[in-house]
Design goal:
It contains 3 helices and no strands. The chain is an all-alpha fold and 73 residues long.
Length: 73
């Protein structure tokens, strides 16, 4: 979802070719994944597996609500 929205945003507002926007989005989403992993999942690594599930569910709600807030729906 983040990659698709970012690709569309770069393509439409920056006027970049869609294929180039995909490459830029891939790098940005990979960097976001590294940041999320280091800030959230590394802290619960080695603990109960239920903690990892709770972190995953929490991130789903955070990203979902951030997308709704940014799109205005």
């Amino acid at each position: 979802m983040i990659g698709a929205f970012l690709t569309w945003t770069i393509s439409v507002f920056a006027g970049v070719n869609a294929y180039v926007a995909i490459l830029i989005s891939m790098v940005a989403v990979a960097a976001l994944g590294v940041v999320v992993e280091r800030l959230t999942f590394r802290r619960v690594l080695g603990t109960d597996k239920l903690n990892e599930i709770f972190v995953s569910l929490g991130l789903i709600y955070i990203f979902e609500n951030a997308a709704v807030a940014s799109l205005g729906n």
